[in-house]
Amino acid sequence: MKPAHNVSEFVLLGLSQSQETEKICFVLFSVFCTVIVVGNLLIIITVKRSQSLISPMYFFLSYLSFVDICYSTVIAPKMIADFLAERKTISFSCCMTQLFFCHFLGGTEVFLLTVMAYDRYIAICKPLHYMNMMTGHVCGWMVLGSWTGSFLHAIIQTLLTTQLPFCGPNEIDHYLCDVHPLLKLACTDTYIVGLVVANTRMLSLTCFVVLVTSYIVILVYLRKCSTEGRLKALSTCTSHITVVVLYFGPCIFMYLRPSTTFSEDKTVSVFYTVFTPMLNPLIYTLRNEEVKNAMRKMWIQKVSFDNK
């Protein structure tokens, strides 16, 4: 039997209560959203068109950029529109939809970052077996597994949250619909659902442990390599490690703790919902010579074609 919801919509309190601050945020986050879409789209186009970026690492990178675009699209437009709204409301169904896609796309990003770490481990520690182990077929299954695993994770969280009765109040002290603030509004014991939120904790923790372990193994292996080989290997890993720290740091703060809300939650959430998707293209292009060279060639080809 479905629970009777007295709440048909939720009121989002947003990032700030100051109108002046919200006007500034409207401009800033509009720029951020544009950079996210343009930057990640540029990565996707470069990888798809370049003949030199055909390794599994760039195959995964293009999917990571696609997820970043989708992730920011689910969250940023509503947040930006609310900066100019006097009353920030979201319907119950839209709130649950946003909750699902936040965890679906966020989980996919977690899995993809873990897969990319495994790819670097095989490439550096088992170079002779790399082409046989990381075939196009295997990479495709890894991406499919990332989508499937995150879908199951998100649908379980969303269905259980949807089944909670919400009788009022309906104010969410956040700029998006997430599990922690919604559990506070449910007019019933949320212990069981709180345990399921541990699903998010275990997902983040397990992937983080795998990531840390893989890079520890890589660093130990590199001690046996020559200085040139060590520097080349580290250059390919530095970008990925930077993205992992930027993404997992806030996620660990948000989900690897009891089901409570802190005043810092909104600020921390901005890091993995807006800043990380925006910084990913910059990190992977500025620190990666192969990507920069591919972009230069693509630009030269475009200019040559336009001048004909």
From TrEMBL:
Recorded coiled-coil stretches: none
Membrane topology: Multi-pass membrane protein
Gene3D superfamilies: Rhodopsin 7-helix transmembrane proteins
Localization per Swiss-Prot or TrEMBL: Cell membrane; Membrane
Gene Ontology MF annotations: G protein-coupled receptor activity; olfactory receptor activity
Predominant localisation class: membrane
Keyword GTP-binding attached: no
Membrane-spanning parts: 26-45, 57-76, 96-118, 138-156, 202-222, 234-256, 268-286
GO cellular component labels: plasma membrane
UniProt keyword annotations, A-Z: Cell membrane, G-protein coupled receptor, Membrane, Olfaction, Receptor, Sensory transduction, Transducer, Transmembrane, Transmembrane helix
Boundaries of every G-protein coupled receptors family 1 profile domain copy: 39-284
Protein family: Belongs to the G-protein coupled receptor 1 family.
Protein name: Olfactory receptor
